[in-house]
Specification:
The complex is a heterodimer of chains A (639) and B (157). In chain A, α9 crosses α11 and α9 crosses α15. Chain A is globular, with a radius of gyration of 26 Å. Chain A is α/β, with parallel strands linked by helices and 639 residues long. In chain A, the strands form five sheets. Chain A has a five-stranded mixed β-sheet, sandwiched between helices. Chain A has a four-stranded parallel β-sheet with strand order 11-10-13-14, with helices on both faces. Chain A has a four-stranded mixed β-sheet with strand order 12-17-16-15, covered by helices on one side. Chain A has 20 helices and 17 strands. Among the domains of chain A are: 101 residues, Ubiquitin-like (UB roll) (Roll), CATH 3.10.20; 123 residues, Alpha-Beta Plaits (2-Layer Sandwich), CATH 3.30.70; 133 residues, Rossmann fold (3-Layer(aba) Sandwich). The relative contact order of chain B is 0.12. In chain B, 50% of the residues lie in helices and 11% in strands. In chain B, α1 packs across α2, α1 crosses α3 and α6 packs parallel to α7. The two termini of chain B are 28 Å apart. The chains are: A alpha/beta (639), B alpha+beta (157). The interface between A and B is medium-sized, with 18 and 16 residues. Bound molecules: iron/sulfur cluster (SF4) (3 copies) and FE2/S2 (inorganic) cluster (2 copies). The site of one FE2/S2 (inorganic) cluster (FES) has 11 residues of chain B, from α5.
């Protein structure tokens, strides 16, 4: 599975399931056990928890998470194992002998109830005013185990102040139950290492290096810790009150862009299973809420492909033909703000490898307050621009001081999928029942290439679809069946693909004709690309590049901070799991296949904007001013 | 911190890593040596240890904050730790404590203005049969009474 292999957790905390196909059914391959007097067979090393789940026996968990290594710290998952003196934590018990397990005895039930009561005795917070009300694992357990009074009392006073220093993540440690899921997420899954348990005994709590504010440490704002926190102790910095104010202000023209991943996941907030695309229902819901115009971020994803692709071609041309030693390759994608901040902190010496192209969110922002404002005759000062994103780092990104190229704050608010779902419910709308409507002009509907940006490998696939047609002059469909670039899809942590370009080159397309004379210099070249998701995987590639390994010879690398890509972003509905992320990705790929338009350069609105507004073409002066940016070397040291 | 000081600290830590190895398990002995040398482990030192062991600074800080005998902020050159657990308490810890506080003019948890002595409470030191007990730097003193405690303090003043 995508995440376990990336884990740097101690060996003892990793799962050790022996799945030897040759041994299946033979002695040593599987073990026969009894769960609640029912005989079952499981592969050697399966945990009691997994064995029970496979047999539809529910066991409560808190510190356990499918994406993370074993912790065994909360003990809520205890069961009775015959012959053992004490109860055993089922999530941390690998089965190696024919044991007999009981999952619901008086002793088990009493122990679990006590654990819940003890957690509640230290839990300061009120469910009514909590973001996780109705989606909280602690609250759910209290209900499941019939907590009707506080056996061990209940704290009446706050112990820790709320840390709301960060644009993205808010910490309300009073609600923390010390499951350490955030710690394992940040250290193992993301390799950023912001959070740990500090101090001891009664004073133990989750904090940062030297107990600093989150804004002052190396947090990349990915929000992965939020997605895995069972309680409301970690949550995103929610701007919805300000957005309501703007909507209610008749002077303001409030526009919203929606990214592909929220649309593939927001249905989960309305009781649908994972993997239902809500793109067009969302459009009508947003209009009913009161947004003045609804746009598709995929439009600027298409634009990103043109800008970033042109930048890549220019870098290659300068490196291959002009032999310019200043040119940095591989070029890194720059659309994931979590990844960008990770690089700024941990590999600042590689900043010049980052594409200077802004992320689709920010490109849209600068076009809205310039091109769109002019076209519609609206004073950009009165435009409030909101972006619905699967991401908590997008909140940080839109607040970066350099993101004001329109002369105003390009994007006013980054709103997560979860926060938007809340606004829709507040407006009394049941999203799945909404009629389907299209996006607003002048940007209109976008291509499938922009859409698949949401899944890991998507940017690369979109780029390949365009590069193949630009350089080889062939239809992508003739090179990849149905234009599906399968080698870059899937959830493997790191993907590496070689594309020999051959010797038959096409003509240089009109739009970049002024930049390169012909493609002869690419004859016989093998394009090498790679894709990584989750910063732990990004770290592996970066270390390889530093050591001069095979990734240093790549031309283009896609990096996404979040496991699974944006569909697994820190602003997406909770819970998350490999299964859920897979379904969301499937929804995106299915929608892509259903579209007529599947290549960025074929998007008529993109073609038009180069004719009407960005008149000196991709990577020209105007686009450089509006659509490109620069980065800040931050370094890893915390002062 | 000055660049020169930083470089020197880094060199020191590199030597310690050579001595104890690059495994995670070397963390405690390395921290103990830094603590002994500098009487605390500065945030820069913590980050250098983390970098050289390839772990995260917050993991180093987590360990330091867990152990009472490792400090992340400067303390006095001598640290006096008086046991506050029940047996020593019954054996007369209170009188010993107030005698020391009176002598130094500071309270427990504080450091003398000349930075010479920090007073702290510790939990059971395993000397319950001969309490009240205290540790001054590395040395254990037991069967204390106010007078004895004050004379020990005066020796390190
Ligand atoms: S974290 Fe859960 S239990 Fe605590 S206040 Fe929030 S909803 Fe209630
Ligand atoms: S947002 Fe990401 S980097 Fe920041 S603490 Fe959470 S997991 Fe770590
Ligand atoms: S902040 Fe959340 S995830 Fe982290 S330890 Fe506390 S309850 Fe668990
Ligand atoms: S879920 Fe098993 S110990 Fe926490
Ligand atoms: S109680 Fe003081 S040494 Fe044990």
């Amino acid at each position: 599975m995508e995440t376990k292999e990336a884990s740097r957790a101690p060996v003892s905390q990793k799962a050790h399931i022996i799945e030897n196909k040759d041994f299946e059914g033979k002695i040593g391959g599987t073990v026969s056990i009894e769960i609640n007097e029912k005989k079952v067979q499981v592969p050697l090393g399966t945990t009691i928890l997994d064995a029970c789940r496979k047999n539809n026996i529910h066991i409560p968990t808190l510190c356990h998470h499918e994406d993370l290594c074993v912790a065994g710290v909360c003990r809520i998952c205890v069961v009775e194992v015959e012959g053992m003196r004490t109860l055993q934590a089922s999530c941390a018990f690998p089965i190696t002998s024919p044991i007999k397990i009981k999952t619901s005895t008086p002793m088990v039930r009493k122990a679990r109830r006590h654990i819940i009561d003890l957690l509640l005795s230290e839990h300061y917070g009120e469910c009514y005013s909590c973001v996780r009300n109705n989606n909280c694992e602690l609250q759910k357990l209290a209900k499941e185990y019939g907590v009707d009074s506080y056996t061990f009392g209940h704290v009446q006073k706050s112990k820790y102040p709320v840390d709301n220093s960060s644009f993205s993540v808010i910490r309300d440690i009073d609600k923390c139950i010390l499951c350490k899921r955030c710690v394992r997420t940040c250290i193992d899954l993301q390799e950023v290492g912001v959070l740990e348990a500090v101090h001891r005994g009664h004073d133990t709590h989750i904090n940062t290096f030297m107990e600093k504010d989150l804004a002052d440490v190396v947090c990349i704002n990915c929000g992965q810790c939020i997605n895995r926190c069972p309680t409301g102790a970690l949550h995103a910095n929610d701007p919805s009150d300000e957005i309501w104010d703007a909507i209610d202000n008749p002077k303001k023209h409030v526009v919203i862009q929606t990214a592909p991943s929220p649309r593939a996941a927001i249905g989960e907030e309305f009781g649908l299973g994972a993997g239902h695309s809500m793109t067009y229902q969302l459009n009508s819901a947003l209009r009913r809420i009161g947004f003045n115009a609804v746009f598709d971020t995929n439009f600027t994803a298409d634009l990103t492909i043109i800008e970033e692709g042109t930048e890549l071609i220019l870098r290659l041309y300068k490196a291959v033909v002009e032999k310019n030693p200043q040119i940095k390759l591989p070029q890194f994608t720059s659309c994931s703000p979590g990844w960008v901040k990770y690089l700024e902190h941990f590999y600042p010496e590689y900043i010049d490898n980052l594409s200077s192209a802004k992320s689709p969110q920010q490109m849209f922002g600068s076009l809205l307050k310039t091109f769109y404002a002019q076209k519609r005759g609206i004073n950009p000062e009165d435009i409030v621009s909101v972006a619905v994103m699967p991401c908590s780092a997008k909140k940080f990104e839109c607040n970066r001081p350099e993101m004001t190229d329109s002369g105003y704050k390009d994007v006013d608010y980054g709103l997560t999928t979860r926060e938007l779902a809340k606004m829709i419910k507040e407006a009394g709308i049941n999203l799945p029942e909404m009629p389907k409507e299209h996006f607003d002009d002048p940007f209109g509907d976008a291509s499938g290439a922009g859409l698949i940006f949401g899944a890991t490998g998507g940017v690369m696939e979109a780029a390949i679809r365009t590069i193949v047609e630009f350089v080889l002059g062939k239809k992508t469909e003739d090179v990849f069946e149905k234009a599906n670039v399968l080698p870059v899809r899937g959830f493997e942590g790191i993907k590496y693909v070689e594309l020999p370009l051959g010797t038959e080159m096409g003509p240089v397309p009109e739009i970049i004709k002024h930049l390169v004379p012909n493609w002869d210099w690419l004859k016989g070249v093998t394009l090498k690309v790679a894709v990584a998701h989750g910063t732990a995987n990004a770290k592996k590639i970066m270390e390889d590049i530093k050591a001069g390994g095979k990734f240093s010879e790549c031309h283009f690398i896609e990096f996404m901070a979040c496991p699974g890509g944006c569909i697994g972003g820190g602003g997406q509905p909770i819970p998350t799991s490999p299964e859920i992320r897979k379904k969301r990705a499937e929804a995106i790929y299915a929608e892509d296949e259903s579209l007529e338009l599947r290549k960025s350069h074929e998007n008529p609105n993109v073609v038009r904007i180069y004719e009407e507004y960005l008149t000196d073409g991709p990577c020209g002066h105007i686009s450089h001013k509006l659509l490109h940016t620069h980065y800040k070397p931050r370094g890893r040291y915390i002062a | 911190m000055l660049v020169m000081e930083k470089n020197q600290l880094t060199e020191e830590i590199e030597v310690l890593i050579k001595k104890y190895g690059k495994e995670r398990s070397s963390l405690i002995p390395i921290l103990q040596d830094i603590q002994k040398q500098h009487s605390y482990i500065s945030d820069y030192a913590q980050q250098e240890v983390a970098r050289l062991l390839d772990i995260h600074p917050v993991e180093v800080f987590s360990v330091i904050s867990f152990y009472a005998f490792l400090n992340s902020s400067p303390k006095g050159r001598n640290i006096v730790r008086l046991c506050q657990t029940i047996t020593c308490d019954l054996a007369g810890k209170k009188n010993v404590a107030s005698a020391i506080e009176r002598e130094l003019g500071i309270k427990f948890g504080q450091t003398t203005p000349d930075n010479k002595i920090t007073l702290e409470y510790a939990n059971c030191l395993g000397m319950c049969d001969v309490g009240p007990a205290m540790i001054v730097n590395d040395r254990v003193y037991y069967k204390l009474d106010p007078e004895k405690a004050v004379s020990i303090i005066n020796e390190i003043r």
